[in-house]
Each structure stands twice: as C-alpha cells, then as structure tokens.
Model the fold of this input.
Amino acid sequence: MNKRRIRTILAVGIIATFATLVALTFVSNYPVPADSQQYLARPLGETGASNRVAGIYLNYRLLDTLLEVLVFSVAVLGVRHYLQQSEGMSLPALSESEVVQTAVGFLSPLALLLCTFFAIFGHISPGGGFAAGVIAASGLLYMAIAHGMKAMEARLNPDRLALAEKATLLILLAFVLSPVAIGRVPLTDLLPKGTPGQLLSGGSILIYNILIAMKVFVGAWAVIAVFAQHRGEL
Amino acid sequence: MAAIVAFMLFGLGILVLVLRRDLVIKLLALGLVNAASILFFVSIGDRPGARAPIQLPGEIAVLADPLPQALVLSAIVVNFAILALALVFVMILVERYHTTDSTRIEQEIAREIDEEETPCP
Done:
C-alpha cells in the first residue's frame, strides 16, 4: 500500500469520526445541554456583566482565561526565540502607493478607536479584551504596510514591547492574586458588581478586559514585528 | 445549516492537511479546520429565534447559549499560538532545505542521517 493511499484512508477516517461526533451531538442533548443552561439561569447580578459570554470567561471560568493568556505569552516567547536564532532574509523595502497610504491614514485611527471601545465596553456589548487587542494590532499592521517597518520600529521598539507584554501579564497575575492579601481565595472578585448594563458594572471584568487588550495588542505586535524583521520588510 | 457548513469545511481542511505535501498549504488547512471547529461550536449554541447573549436586567428573551462562545475563545487563542509557532518552524525548515515540500524535507533529513552514520574513509 503506497503512502498516498494510507493518507487518504487516514483523512476519510478522521472525517467519518467527526461526522459521527456531529450526528451524536444532534441526537443526544441538543438543543440545550443541561450544564450550559445553568449559566443563563443564574441571575445577572452574580457577575454584573450584561454580556453573558464575558461573564462566563472573566468570572466563572477566569482560571481558564488566565491559562489562555499564558498560552498566548508562551507563543510570543517561542516565536521571538526561534526567529531571532535563525539568520533571516533581507528583502528591499518597497514603497506603497498613495492610495494605500491615504486609506491607512483613515483606517488605522479607526482600528485604535474600535480597540478602545471594545476593551472598555466589552462587558456590556459585544467585544472584549482579546478582540480589542487583535484589532489594535491590525491597525498598526496597516500602518507598517503603508509606512514601512523601519519607521514603525523607530516609534515602537519591539524589544521594549515584548518587555511590556510580560509586565502586563505580571500585573494581571498580581491582580488575580491580590485577594490573598486580605485573606480571601485567589480569583475572588472584590470590586462592586454595579447595575448590569452600565459602564461601571461587572466588578473586575472591565479591568481584565483592558489588561487583556493591552497584552494581546502588545504581544500580537511583537510577533508581527519579529516576523517582519526576519524577512526584512512586510 | 451552519453545522453542515462547519462539517464540510472541516472535511476539506483535513483532506488538504493530509493529502497536500506543501507545508504552508498544510498550515492554511489547519487554520481552516480550526475555523470549522469554531463555527461548529457557535452553531450548537444557537436556538430558534435566539439573540446574542447580551441581557439587560429584568429582560426576558431567548438568548444563544453563551458557554460554547466562551469556550471557543480558548480555541481561537490556541490556534493563533499553534499557527504562529508552526509558521516559524516552517520558515526555519525552508531556510535550511530550500523547499516547502514535506516529502523532500523528509528525504533530505534521511540523507543527512545516513551521511552522519556512514564513517569517513
């Protein structure tokens, strides 16, 4: 049996398994599994966040989210470590057309504004820290495409940003552990929950969203910058 | 409907992942498989006539299940991490062997091992 046939059988096997899984999902507990219904049945004031998704991943399942942030940090660390070891290419810088430069001048501030909005209002409307960080990083990526990586690096040093990323992670962990200082269990939300639907509500969720947005923004930019450095230009 | 689209995208991604030999195409297929999983998770949280799970106090409405959406965030972040790291490894392999063909890279590595094992005359 040649290699290609084995691969085909493997692919068909995986797809068949997945199809069975899909079929079982629809046959068994669908439409509402009992466990997830519990979250919607809980009172809104418990987390204080009208965005139920934010309430789950930044309150009930905060530990999962912290580990997620850690995975992101490890990825940034790995990318920087391995790319700085290899030699890299140096492609000549190509200047972009005036159309792109004008469009970027309009889109980048908009991306940064959206980032701020999603981070601050993530607990009362769609959005959240992860989305906000990625939007801001793409705004900077537009600018880097239009004005060149060198100009961007002069303004935002990737090495300092990588340090800033670690510092944000440290602040986040310190914030999560801070209840220990007054004899409470870590991850306890000490801030008042407020009235759901208002800006100052949801306890610590607002702070977590802002910190995660900063971390993801800085981390994603550090990854983009190190890829661009390695290649020479975007 | 969305679950069927997710299933088709997943199948396409797996087929490309296993059958194509180009490492960059494999990474793109991995991204497709992940996007399909995310779509599947979001689709199982849906209910007839459901709104996005954003609720005001005292409001009674049919909301989409927020739990799969919260879980999918982990999948997105882990996918980013895997793709970024895998891309770096592909770049290192391409720099060393000047090809993105996985079979040729395997052959080159096997040849290198053979050369190392053969004692010099």
